[in-house]
Specification:
Blueprint (H helix, E strand, L loop, with lengths): L4 E18 L2 E23 L2 E15 L4 E3 L5 E3 L3 E14 L2
Antiparallel strand pairs: 1-2, 2-3, 3-6, 4-5
């Protein structure tokens, strides 16, 4: 990293409620069964008046359920179904000053 280019990243394991500053973003998480959150950002400053920031983040919640069993519409029984959830976010920010 230098004054014109930097790369940052992070990996978190979240279990419960968490406030977190991720590069230039403020994030709030709440995971009852645990989650893994990863992010990476690139900051490019080709000139003193121009800046491009790129960031991507991914969150994967652990499998969870509060349902012990259930019956499907066709009559089959399902035991301990698992629910998963993933999020993928990206941001592109371009700043130019006169």
């Amino acid at each position: 990293a230098d004054e014109h280019f930097s790369v940052k990243g992070g990996v978190l394991y979240i279990n419960g409620f968490l406030w977190y500053f991720e590069d230039t973003d403020f994030r709030i998480f709440n995971s009852e069964s645990g989650a893994v959150h990863t992010w990476a950002s690139v900051d490019l400053k080709p000139t003193s008046l121009f800046r491009i920031m790129l960031k991507v983040s991914h969150t994967a919640d652990a499998s969870s359920t509060r349902v012990v069993d259930a019956q499907s519409p066709n009559g089959s029984w399902i035991y301990n179904p698992q629910v998963t959830h993933e999020d993928l976010d990206f941001r592109i920010q371009v700043n130019y000053a006169l």
